[in-house]
């Protein structure tokens, strides 16, 4: 196991993630919090788990994250939009290449600058995990919006791309009503953390089978931002969560798009899956982003 310290190893490791995705524009990882994250006593940026022989191309898995960071991937020809990427990992780990830097490279190709978040992972099985991740994502969105000029972003065109567990966090951000899950720390927390749009790719555990409804506490509000959702019928994390979330969006009149593929499983990111058309989701998403992440023509309001 490789341990990430606070100094050179963490920089080298995270830069390595970026090289796996073919994106050389990422700078050193930046901290999400000015000091310790809420409730934390450690500053660990995580442990890289041993690579699995079956993973071709390789997949990086990082556990024991106590100090969240994000990497910046600026588009070569930016259109002013930005996306915070929330990788998956079941909250016990974060997968920063398959569901992070590879997605950042794709977004860069659409003229969208991307920011990959290594959020905190859960401490034990009794920890639901999403609470720390949600806090980190809320803070990161406020940070991006407060420093939009620094990265060439328009503050009203900053969205989310969440995979698996990160997709659940994205759904919680869409439905939290702008309520922050931690006490104010500084002026950055006075800046809105609500995304302007979101893409949820195989969002994990949105469905509560016992209630035949969205997971407890999740209600789609009337002012929910537009959302694009991808799932497969054979995903072990039921696609009913994606379907119910989409239904909630439609009931509220929120612009939304849902794609459920017959097969493809879970955890594919942007990669091809043999015998499935699932990798075509990026083409549909690119068209959707043209409508919801790019500035509308002068005098024509954006559909929201």
From TrEMBL:
UniProtKB keywords: Hydrolase, Signal
Entry EC number(s): 3.1.1.72
Leader peptide range in chain numbering: 1-26
Highest taxon above the source species: Bacteria
InterPro entries assigned: AB_hydrolase_fold, BD-FAE-like_dom, GDXG_lipolytic_enzyme
BD-FAE-like domain sequence ranges: 106-174
Keyword Nucleotidyltransferase annotated: no
UniProt GO molecular function: acetylxylan esterase activity
Keyword Signal: yes
Protein name per UniProt: Acetylxylan esterase
């Amino acid at each position: 196991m490789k341990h990430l310290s606070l100094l050179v190893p963490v920089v080298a490791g995270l830069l390595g993630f970026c090289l796996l995705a073919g994106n050389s524009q990422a700078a050193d990882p930046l901290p999400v919090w000015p000091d310790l994250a809420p409730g934390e006593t450690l500053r660990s940026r995580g442990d890289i788990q041993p690579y699995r022989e079956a993973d071709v191309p390789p997949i990086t898995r990082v556990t024991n994250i106590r100090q969240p960071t994000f990497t910046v991937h600026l588009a070569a020809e930016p259109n002013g939009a930005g996306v915070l990427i929330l990788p998956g990992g079941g909250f016990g780990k974060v997968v920063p290449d398959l569901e992070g830097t590879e997605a950042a490279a794709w977004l860069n190709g659409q003229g969208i600058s991307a920011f990959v978040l290594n959020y905190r992972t859960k401490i034990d099985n009794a920890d639901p995990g999403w609470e720390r991740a949600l806090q980190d994502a809320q803070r990161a969105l406020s940070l991006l919006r407060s420093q939009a000029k620094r990265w060439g972003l328009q503050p009203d065109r900053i969205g989310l791309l969440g995979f698996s567990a990160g997709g659940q966090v994205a759904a919680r951000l869409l439905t939290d009503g702008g309520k922050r899950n931690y006490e104010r720390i500084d002026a950055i927390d006075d800046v809105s953390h609500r995304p302007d749009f979101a893409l949820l790719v195989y969002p994990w555990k949105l469905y509560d089978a016992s209630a035949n409804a969205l997971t407890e506490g999740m209600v789609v509000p009337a002012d929910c931002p537009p959302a694009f959702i991808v799932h497969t019928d054979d995903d072990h994390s039921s696609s009913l969560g994606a379907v119910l979330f989409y239904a909630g969006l439609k009931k509220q009149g929120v612009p939304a798009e849902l794609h459920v593929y017959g097969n493809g499983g879970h955890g594919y990111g942007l990669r091809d899956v043999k015998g499935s058309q699932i990798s075509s989701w990026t083409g549909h998403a690119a068209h959707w982003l043209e409508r919801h992440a790019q500035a509308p023509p002068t005098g024509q309001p954006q559909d929201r």
